[in-house]
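Dear colleague,

Following up on yesterday's call, I've attached the two folding results inline so they're easy to grep. Please treat them as preliminary; we haven't cross-checked anything against experimental data yet. The first protein's sequence and structure tokens come first.
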Amino acid sequence: MFQRLLPDQIVSAVYDIDLSALRARDIRGIITDLDNTLVSAKTPLATPELAAWLEKVKSEGFRVVVLSNNNLTRVSKFAEPLGIPFIPAARKPFSAAFRRALELLGLSPEEAVVVGDQMLTDILGGRRMGMHTILVTPIAPGEEGWGTRINRMIEKVALSRLKRRGLWPTKEER
């Protein structure tokens, strides 16, 4: 059961994603979470470093959509200045928003990757859709809301069981 929470890749931050490797896998789109994936939950706009990275991603031919469980005000304030399409109040891990994100990208599940900081929302949702998944280390875990904190407790149990079964990669294997 917990195997559905296993990401295909684990990176420290979005900047560590190997875009060349994604392109080699015929990945053409990135569905990304917002809070604690791209910026902290309390950071309203993209940092200059993130804006530059997103421009690089787009210049290399990738399409990007922000898929967030957060509200319209939060997500639009972040995504609109960057010219990135977005889906707020996504209700991840349910499939409907992931399907909508794929429609916005004009891609199939095999052509897109899901990037996020939560196993129970981003990774589970992406895996249920048959997409490649990348787990990033949360940027500022102390700034999370109560719902995310509950998810983190469940993730801790899942992580413990995955490690015990030898399914979670060691730092050397990542």
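Below is the second protein, in the same order (sequence, then structure):
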Amino acid sequence: MARIAIIDGHPDADRARFVHALADAYAAGAEAGIHDVRRIDIASLDFPILRSAKEWREADPVDTIHKAQIDIRWADHLVILYPLWLGDVPALLKAFLEQVMRPGFAIDETEPEQPARLLGGLSARIIVTMGMPAPFYRFFYRAHSLKSLDRNLLRFVGIAPVRYSIIGGVEKGSGHRKHWLHRIRQLGQDAR
């Protein structure tokens, strides 16, 4: 049995967004697989944007961010879902991750040359949706937002392995979406 924290990174709270349906499918699959699930829906959170390195290092996180940190620390598997916006992670998800992944929680900066990775032992899956075909994003654009999130943040704080699901052509129609909802539900059931 796994402990799974699902971060629904779509900034629009409208439940008609496909990312929300995918998060629901993953959660349903995980619960069917007898896994424990906690959810973080960033569209419903109220938190400030960090504006300086000093603030990132020294300011106490607001309660909503502290609760998210508790949920992430509790988990042994993290699932991050988001739509590709302007070729990258939506700004609200980025702001959330900057708030959450602070010194003392995600890294220990007592040795500045080699910060300790405090989230070791946690694995992750990133699920990203987009209008363009997935192979085009993967090979032409080299999946740069995924690689940046993986290498520059998740692995930096010790999260590994990190797996990806790239869902392109989300406007293709209901058959395409049903296929992906089924596939993501299965990943949840298997806690992958």
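For the second protein, one point worth flagging: The mean pLDDT is 96.

Best wishes,
A.L.
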